Structures
1.
Amino acid sequence: MRPLVLCELAVTDLRNLARTTLRPSPRVTVISGPNGHGKTSLLEAAYLAATSRSFRTSKLGELPRHGCERGEVTATFTRDGLSCVQEVVIEGGRRAVRAEGKRPRSLAAFATRSPVVCFHAGELELSQGAAAGRRTLLDRVALFFDPVSADDRERYEDAMRQRKRALDERGPTARELDAFEALAATHGARLTVARRRTAQALAEVTRRWFERIAPRGLALGAEYAPGGVDDAARFATELSLRRGRDHARGSAGFGPHRDDVALSLDGHPARAVASQGQHRALTIALKLGELDLVAEAAAALPVFLLDDVSSELDQARTAALFEVLAERQGQLLITTTRPELIDTARFSDRLDLSVRDGALG
């Protein structure tokens, strides 16, 4: 399987980056510098160019540089000898995207052209934080296997918002509830199917990675815990029966917005029994699982962005991660405050760059 390679990243007025061009190594690029000078912003720009989203915020209006109304990023990727240019412009809290100078048919189509996976500080909550992070992981992977799942999620969420508004304003007897619940049931059932398939595949590959990097004899369990059902008729019936309860509590107690992936160690909930080292090993296993599944679906090794990994992981877990990555041929972009701690002796073509005050040096 051939790797996707980010050849050039041109950033204008994003975060604290005024006008910056990054030309990384096709294998390993280590970007160092003090905190707050733009290291993470460079990775965020690369992620934005590939996916149209930020891994740091859902508020697009935060991305343009202070005092600027517009920010933009252009990335050139190569894959199997062919190049692809992707552009994202953020202005007025909205985004405009182009691939090869043309508008894609959907944001999902844009986000799956050039597969990128990111490890950042927030990912450490995957094993011990709220279920929302694990749902997001499922949706990122599902996007590559079933791009329509993104549309199903958006339509489900919109229908459920309309249902809640009707309940809040007119109560459980509101006439429009049947229509909103039918829409929510159709798209919610499809989303449940996509997430179940993704969760099953992710669980299998995550267990294999965990067995390799965690203490021997420790059994990982990962099971999809659906909040809804995959049958639209049953889904709609359940929503109808729950109108009174949902009205009283102010939120819906049924549906894929309550999905989770239940993680366990030797049969006990990981959140309750795992040590910090075990949580980190589990997080790494989940991210390697994401890498493997995205690579399989995209038929290309994704670019892997690692933000300040030496600070977020202890020495043992960092060594285990880089041992695995050395066996793969994918491109790595790594940020750190201490480049001497990044052991890439097993790798070739390491490029070291530094960032200060938003400028590469």
2.
Amino acid sequence: MGVSRPPEVYKWQVQDYLAELEQLADTAGAVVLKKFIQERDRIDPAFFIGKGKALELREFVQRAAIDLVIFDEDLSPVQARNLEKFLQCKILDRTALILQIFALRAKSAQAKLQVELAQLEYFLPRLTRQWTHLSKQKGGIGTKGPGETQIETDRRLVWQRIAHLKRKLQNIAQQQETRTKWRERITRIALVGYTNAGKSTLMNALCPQSGVRGENRLFATLDATSRRLELEPNKRALLSDTVGFIRKLPHALVQSFKSTLDEVRDADLLLHVVDASHPNYSEQIAVVEQTLRDIGAGDKETIVVFNKADILPSDFNFNAVRSQYPNAIFVSAERGINIESLKARIAATMEADFQTRTARVHISQYKIISQLHDETEVLEKKYDGEFVEVVFRVPNKRLKRVDALLGKLAHVQAA
């Protein structure tokens, strides 16, 4: 495994990055034998690493019969091709490794299509590596050689497949939107966080009947899973577990998993789950916050949930964390510690997002009364002759729609 360390990156960060890369490799089924660190001011355009480090790496690859070398940074197609030829083994960069993991973990038809799309978009500029045996066949002046023709044919096939996958994913997204239209009438909460922070375990703790599988591995969850969250009598929400984020999450994956990440964009509240036991949790928080901004969810109401509080060292500075993250709450999803306090915090946050109103509706306008039941939480109905007094709670996100519905009524007031 190799990484090039720029001078501005501290050594402890590089060690942390390599530890994460080792976790990724383990998730993909690889056994890590040795790690290499390259200190350079500039990246070598031909080999990414310097020639001396490349020679050292080749010597180890030959001696230990290595069949795979993984780089923590993204390699250009030229660098990957040169390294494979020089080292005589398979080369993967960080993006290719993550794509491989997603391909292994994808279970649903939608996730498989999303991963295939991301893989094709990543490997498209690297197709020339598959046709080097044809590159020596040259045509005459003004004509295209067989090698070039084969490459262009292959690219056209890939572009056609990409277009086909995008259409299928768009159709799936439209079908999901139709099936989940009812979700607009309920508060939606999304679990977000760095991969392996314990989101699935927390979902099981909040929704005991959820049956979501939690593993101590990166990217254990790819498909968005939603369950009903019971908070208080007559107060519930829809809780969704989503794909974990990671440093340098490939752009192709973010684009391909757009429909899955819509669960985050459409949520009313985010639970940002943090592995409090990780020595570099603050950087992981920054990565998640940046990813949320990148997908258009950076301004969402958020509760920061510091998970794995049961294994924190005795000298952990809780006060410093609370001063930096005022809305933070510490829990242990594995042991169920402080879960009820988290539910109470969620309920209080939801309550602040609702308004209670009263409308006086003539009994002839029964359609409006029916729509109020669909769009709001009706708390009470009182009949007064030919009128019905309806007391209801409505979330702010549907306030305009309800106001438009009641626009012709003269008797509407805030509670």
3.
Amino acid sequence: MLFREKYVTVPVAGGKLSGHSPELHHILEMSNYLATVKGLQNVLDSGVSKMMQQFHLEAGRIYLLDESGERLVLRAAKGIETHGLESMGMGEGFSGKAARAGCFLAQRVTDLEDRERSEMLSDLGLQSVICLPLIAMDQMLGVMNLGASRIIELSMATIDLMVVLGNLIAVGILNARQAEALEEKARALEVQKESIQFFAYTASHDLKSPATAIHGLARMLLRLGGEAMSYKTKEICQQISKAASIIEELAGELNAYIKAKESPLDPEPVDLDGVLEAVRGNVADEVERRGIAWRQPHGVGPIHADRLALIRALQNLVDNALKYGGKGLSLVEVGYELTPSHHVFSVRDDGVGLAEDQADKVFSLFGRADSSRGIPGTGLGLAIVSEIAHRHGGRAWLESQPGKGCIFYFSMNRDLAQEKPA
């Protein structure tokens, strides 16, 4: 032990184990090498090459079990003609025995029980063969066959080293398979996502056109029918028109949600004063008619954001306050704060407010607060705000007390100018 020293310093970077323990150095080298290899076939080819190089061998093969678990199928080979060696059953010969028993086997070619295979390998110039089971997580994956044109002298230390290196290769195989499976799932999800997106775009478009037509026809019917219509008939026409308007609104909001979630962002310097004036202009008539006070910040310098997305988020929050604030609503106030990492926007109202247990629900897709019953709406407005915030590296949340109004917040990362997200 080195504890006679005050402290112990042993360099471990850059493969410094070689001077102390060559075996551990080889293990570290194999582990580091396999960590850089991507793809199952590359792991197999690299594993064979590394083992041949490490133990000065002339031939190497890797067989993997097929899906049935009954046959070993050749997947990688180097330094040997593989005709006649393409596959074998688990009950066949040297390799099958190693796989069945999960044992390291080494033998002279002339001593192999399968005389035909013995002669084949001898003709290929081999005198010694080694079969190394490839086992990871107690799972038999296959075997590695190694061959030499000489009689190999094996010590237990060499066998142990081969077994450990074989295990590292087996773990690399398992990891590569899992990575390929994840990539396949990701591709499938991407296809599914594109299909859903196409369906949503198509559905919203196909909904809007007939809804607009129905809306127009209902108005035309009211106009043409005039006084000849009964009160009940007029009421039915108005209900048709109202239902068509709701479908139009839903189609538009679906499109807006998809754009908020999927469309590429275009961060640019945005004049917040100009954005707020645009939002205020869209609600000015209603604010004046209802006698609602409007407050907003002034003199804020340019901020980096997607201008259209920022307008949409603020517009949705202002519309939300006007729609759900109640008859007693008298104030809508837009706020802005700059933190070390984010731009934080807020829309405060002095309306009816929300119960605390409704806070998370309202930002979910089609989520509406219990207090919104009877008020027309799609349940997408705040979900759009949440998506816009998320795409900008921020989040959306609210503070509320029943009867005292709400403050809705959303944030955007200040580094969007550097990130330029896609």
